[in-house]
Design brief:
50% of the residues lie in helices and 8% in strands. It is α/β, with parallel strands linked by helices and 337 residues long. The structure holds nicotinate mononucleotide (NCN) and 5,6-dimethylbenzimidazole.
Length: 337
């Protein structure tokens, strides 16, 4: 028998992803049409409620929403492409644990649980300009770890990340997936400008040129150009699909991880919404490639899942309206003449 390849299980899962639940969607559409409002008057909140039904397989409801933040360190930081040192990744994980970060405050106000997963921060990935980020085994194990984050009855998963250098990695993934020029995908991240921005563009160019013969397979592209938080997020998105959990994607890095899955199977991220468009210029371009429309545009560029957590409040309201509103008949409100 052939030896198992570390990616075999993920390839099988990606080929056999569950489809949307059509009966649950039909039931939600029916109820939506009876509620006390002019048709379509709740705009995208109605779309969100239908999306929840289609991908959860139940009436739209959000009782156990969770933000998962995956933290990773990147060998590419050696190229001096971020204004911040990689030690900040671990320090921010400490800050999350002490409730000191923006994501803690948003989770508290929106009533979301928060889990932070630090991914071997003392062992940064390979510098992708000269070597793959991860071995096949490490990439597959990290995807599997990400899958485990979707447990305990979560019914809305908000994905976020923390990792100094990861806007360079996200740009490399996008350039590897979609081409164009490296400069199309590179932006300031936490504040790179001038020569640092030029180094960032050069690093992305060099990385994609170095791995150019291995980029047609999306999982291989992920392990060569990606990083641990990207692999874990890809795993979490797959697990959510299997467990009928709708997903909110945060900024540039999270969306780039999702894009890898869409390249493997065009329907792989149909259960995901783009929570917000970040100020990182590559994010909007990437969202357009994915054919999606973000829920929010607040000029944020923090990461940590902050945009996804804010969008979760919209998803909660959408579910509450769908479930709690009276029908025309119940309320004795006259319908259209
Ligand atoms: O969410 C975004 O689109 C976003 C845009 C710019 C920066 N970030 C965050 O900033 C870090 C990466 O920035 P950098 O400059 O080190 O590549 C990482 O921790 C991200 O969460 C996040
Ligand atoms: C301070 C800081 C906080 C962050 N949160 C997400 N990415 C970040 C990057 C920095 C530098």
């Amino acid at each position: 028998m052939d030896a198992q390849h570390p990616f075999d299980d993920f390839r099988s899962l990606l080929e056999a992803l569950p489809a949307a639940d059509t009966p649950a969607l039909a039931a939600a559409r029916k109820r939506n049409s009876l509620l006390t409002k002019p048709e379509g008057a709740l705009g995208r909140l109605e779309e969100i409620a239908m999306w929840l039904a289609a991908w959860s397989g139940r009436a739209p409801a959000v009782h156990r929403p969770m933000v998962a933040v995956f933290a990773g360190n990147h060998g590419i930081a050696e190229e001096n492409i971020s204004p911040f040192p990689t030690t900040v990744t671990q320090q921010m994980v400490g800050n999350f644990e002490k409730n000191g970060a923006a994501i803690n405050q948003i989770c508290a106000t929106v009533d979301l649980s928060l889990k932070v997963f630090d991914l071997a921060l003392d062992y940064p990935t390979g510098n992708i300009t000269v070597e793959p980020a991860l071995s096949e085994r490490d990439c597959a194990a990290t995807m599997a770890y990400g899958m485990e984050s979707v447990a305990g009855g979560v019914d809305l998963l908000c994905l976020g990340e923390m990792g100094i250098g990861n806007t360079t990695i996200a740009a490399a993934l996008c350039y590897g997936l979609y081409g164009g020029s490296a400069a199309d995908w590179v932006g300031p991240g936490t504040g790179a400008e001038g020569e640092m921005l030029e180094r960032k563009i050069a690093a992305v160019e060099k990385a994609v040129a170095f791995h150019k013969d291995h980029l047609s397979d999306p999982l291989e592209l992920l392990r060569r150009l990606g990083g641990r938080e990207f692999a874990a997020i890809a795993g979490a998105i797959i697990a959510a699909r299997m467990q009928k959990v709708p997903v909110l994607l945060d900024g540039f890095a999270v969306t780039a991880a999702a894009a890898v899955l869409k390249a493997a199977n065009p329907s792989a991220i149909d259960h995901c919404m783009i929570a917000h468009v970040s100020a990182e210029p590559g994010h909007l371009k990437l969202i357009q490639k994915l054919g999606k429309t973000p829920l929010l545009a607040l000029g944020m560029r923090l990461g940590e899942g902050t945009g996804a957590a804010l969008a979760a409040s919209l998803v909660k309201s959408a579910a509450a309206c769908h479930t709690g509103m009276a029908t025309f008949e119940e309320a004795g409100v006259s319908g259209r003449v």
